[in-house]
Design goal:
A: 406 residues, alpha+beta, Butyryl-CoA Dehydrogenase, subunit A, domain 2, Butyryl-CoA Dehydrogenase, subunit A, domain 3, four-stranded mixed sheet, four-stranded antiparallel sheet, B: 403 residues
């Protein structure tokens, strides 16, 4: 790399560090800092403010066209930003759904006004989004969506229910595929909408998960009206738009944002955290890190992380050469999610009986975050398409094996 | 040259050319003929590989090579892996050619490298002994000084292609101290010029790669035939291991990908219960798992090759990671390959067992998965102690070299 460029990157690094010193919440990174309750309104607001600051400073919105509020950054610059923000352990962003799944969907299928209206506020974090996809009888079999939309003048009248609506609690806007043609066959009967969560007839009820948290919701559509112009893509082609959303979700389409906290959160931090934990944990008088079984397992995760890092780069280059089909996302989706789960299992086994302590118990390590993650990872292999569905995608679309179901 | 993800145009050409060449010159029928041959060596094929420039691929032009890089070399190895090609390519290039290029004297390089490039000689390395493990302590074959020469005595095992090798590198013990890595010396032998070397073919599983027991009885070697420095052979051995391990990973990934292709093709054609068996979800999901494994095996293999090409200090980490993951994954692929073929996959006539045996043989060489994972654990420990939290992700060159 040329000396000049290196100089520029160093300057950027210094700039980010100054930004962090100025903008991080008071006491951040010290034991005195008390983070707002996970999933609380305060946590959400903190995330929103933080994302706005990042956006204003030009640390997010990469690769999104300027007219929609994006910014051009070189690979190296993005890497520096990601590095600096990750190492500070900068606060998590408010609702990642907007940037990670709605934004790519709109870029691909959105009408011009939709892109101009929604994308800048997605990037700045001013508006949060929810995803009304799964229904009680349409999970893995998403095409079985029963939510109906009936045309009434310039509007659609929507009735039905969603479950596992991510981000519902604080969402300003939502996306939903709706059955707009009751006679057309599966996959050709849906249309895809963006809608205002303040619309009359839209109701959110919390859905409590096995972690005890309610990060998802059940959402109800009772004669809710959506303007026709809010349709994304063509009428009756909503399935394909929905697939674009899911593809982005499976691939964790975070390229628009620098600080990808999500990976770290669900994987219980980097491998170094496991080393730290194993070194500080004794089982029957013996330091866990000295147990070859656990050493092997921890080393395996380091290996898998590096494999994933290199694969991401390979996919990026393949995508540039237009050699990808989108189905590759299923590979990384399965691997990373199952890895999260295996990691959490290992952590639980390292901690033994102590993994049982949840947040609020004075004996809970790191305020119960290990226990929480252990439970939370159960959902990783279900959400955004079960690993079984993803295996089916690989088998049918990548290997060309025949359909296994009618 | 920065790390490159995926193949550039020249590499794509190399891949296509080598695949076509091997399909034509060494189809599986020919592989089986060579398996039956005592040495498994085809001089005609060797000559043709030389004509294509493969044998001098990574040598500079002054030694008759084409000056290409290590990643280019692994592209050939992947293709060779795809046909479990019987050939002394790794023995000659990785076990002898590259170390001679890196550590040889001008005379040694002038004498041997152009001959390798022209396909006139085969080379190998006699390193392993009774326990078959690659570690300094087990090197007990002795080289004793007598005047201006050394006399070698002892037995080496698992020496590939020994019978057809014109030149042999021998790792011998010239001194025994508390540190077993001290006192190992590499000698370069012209096997046609000396008496006292007895190579006996070993009856081993993988018949596509012949291995030998080599007994040395009072074999004299002039002191000028030492490669590198006296007593300082182990660091050279470590570099040989680094490069050859990466090469074996490339070969394993090639073999694994071919084994999966064969299996998927079979799933599409074999009919049971009135449908092709590839429509059964139980098999589909297992096939998908193999795709996932190979994706990451390929990534680590390519990273290892790129890191070696770049002379990156991360190469040691990359190679250990690649070896353990590629070995584990490819062993699973070939085992599933047999299982998903059912009875036919268990027969001698079906090719799947050739892939199974090659992959397992490669996995045992230069340390298996658990050996390399322990090396990674040690590295993690060092990183942790050096800088504590977060240091791992911050290793130099990790993120900034993505251009």
């Amino acid at each position: 790399m040329a000396v000049e460029e290196t100089g520029k990157l160093d300057a950027l690094r210094q700039e980010i560090r100054a930004f962090l010193r100025k903008n991080l919440p008071k006491g951040w990174g010290t034991p005195e800092y008390v983070a707002p309750e996970r999933g609380s309104k305060e946590a959400h607001e903190l995330g929103k403010q933080w994302q706005k600051k990042l956006y204003d400073a030009g640390y997010t919105g990469f690769g999104v066209p300027k007219e929609y509020g994006g910014i051009e950054r070189s690979r190296e610059e993005m890497a520096v930003i990601r590095e600096e923000l990750t190492h500070t352990g900068a606060p998590p962003l408010a609702g990642s759904l907007g940037p990670s799944i709605v934004l790519p969907t709109l870029l691909r299928y959105g009408k011009e006004w939709q892109k101009k209206r929604f994308i800048p506020k997605i990037l700045s974090g001013e508006e949060s989004w929810c995803e009304c996809f799964s229904e009680p009888n349409a999970g893995s079999d998403l095409a079985n969506i029963q939510k109906t939309g009936v045309r009434d003048g310039d509007e659609w009248v929507v009735n039905g229910q969603s479950v596992w609506t991510s981000g519902a609690k604080f969402a300003d806007w939502g996306v939903a595929p709706v059955r707009t043609d009751l006679k057309a066959p599966r996959h050709r009967n849906l249309s895809y909408f963006v809608f205002d969560c303040k619309s009359p007839g839209f109701e959110v009820r919390p859905l409590r998960q096995m972690t005890g948290d309610s990060e998802f919701g059940e959402t109800f559509f009772d004669n809710m009206r959506i303007p026709h112009e809010n349709m994304v893509g063509e009428e009756g082609k909503g399935w394909y738009v929905a697939m674009a959303t899911l593809e982005a979700e499976r691939g964790g389409g975070f390229q628009f944002l620098a600080p990808s906290r999500r990976i770290e959160l669900t994987s219980l931090g980097g491998v170094d955290n496991f080393v730290e934990l194993a070194k500080n944990t004794k089982r029957r008088g013996k330091v866990v890190w000295e147990d070859p079984v656990f050493r092997q397992r921890i080393a395996q995760f380091a290996i898998e992380n590096e494999a994933m890092r290199y694969s991401r780069e390979r996919m990026r280059v393949k995508a540039q050469k237009k050699q990808t089909t989108g189905n590759e996302q299923s590979i990384s989706s399965i691997f990373s999610r199952e890895k999260n789960q295996r990691q959490a299992n290992m952590v639980a086994e390292i901690m033994g009986a102590n993994i049982q302590f949840m947040k609020g118990d004075k004996r809970a390590l790191d305020d119960g975050s290990w226990a929480y993650t252990f439970l939370r990872t159960r959902g990783n292999t279900i959400e955004t398409g079960t690993t079984e569905i993803n295996r089916g995608i690989i088998a049918e679309r990548m290997l060309g094996l025949p359909k296994s179901r009618a | 040259m920065p790390i490159e993800y995926g193949l550039n145009e020249q590499q794509e050409m190399l891949k296509t050319m080598s695949r076509d060449f091997i399909a034509k010159e060494c189809p599986m029928t020919r592989v089986r003929e060579l398996m039956k041959d005592e040495t498994g060596f085809s001089p005609e094929l060797w000559k043709k590989m030389a004509e294509l420039g493969w044998l001098g691929l990574v040598f500079p032009e002054e030694y008759g090579g084409t000056g290409m890089n290590f990643r280019d070399l692994t592209i050939l190895l992947e293709e060779m892996g795809r046909t479990v090609l019987p050939s002394p390519f790794i023995s000659t290039l990785l076990l002898a050619g590259l170390p001679i290029l890196a550590f040889g004297t001008k005379e040694q390089k002038d004498e041997i490298l152009p001959k390798i490039a022209r396909g006139e000689v085969v080379c190998t390395l006699a390193a392993l002994e009774e326990d078959g493990d690659w570690w300094a302590d087990s090197i007990n074959v002795r080289a004793d000084r007598k005047g201006d020469q050394y006399v070698i005595n002892g037995t080496k095992l698992f020496v590939p292609d020994a019978k057809v090798a014109n030149y042999m590198l021998i790792a011998a013990r010239t001194k025994r101290t508390e540190n077993p890595e001290e006192g190992i010396t590499l000698f370069l032998l012209d096997t046609r010029e000396v008496w006292g070397i007895l190579s006996t073919g070993l009856k081993t599983m993988d018949e596509t790669r012949k291995q030998y027991e080599v007994v040395f009885v009072n074999v004299p070697v002039p002191a000028k035939n030492i490669l590198g420095e006296l007593h300082q052979g182990w660091p050279i051995m470590k570099q040989i291991a680094l490069h050859t391990t990466a090469a074996l990973c490339a070969e394993m990934v090639g073999a694994g990908e071919k084994a999966l292709e064969m299996t998927v093709a079979y799933l599409k054609e074999r009919v049971a219960f009135g449908v092709v068996i590839g429509s059964f979800q139980a098999l589909q999901h297992r096939a998908a798992d193999l795709v996932i494994g190979l994706e990451y095996a390929r990534s680590l293999m390519e990273w290892a090759a790129e890191a070696i090409k770049e002379d990156d200090p991360d190469a040691i980490t990359a190679v250990s990671m690649a070896k353990s993951f590629c070995g584990d994954t490819c062993k699973k692929v070939v085992a599933e390959g047999i299982q998903m073929h059912g009875g036919i996959g268990f027969t001698w006539d079906h090719d799947m067992h050739l892939y199974f045996k090659r992959v397992w043989a490669s996995d045992t060489a230069f340390g298996d998965g658990s050996y390399h994972r322990e090396l990674i654990a040690k590295a993690l420990d060092e990183i942790h102690q050096l800088a504590g939290h977060g240091r791992w992700m911050k290793m130099p060159g990790r993120i900034t070299q993505t251009g």
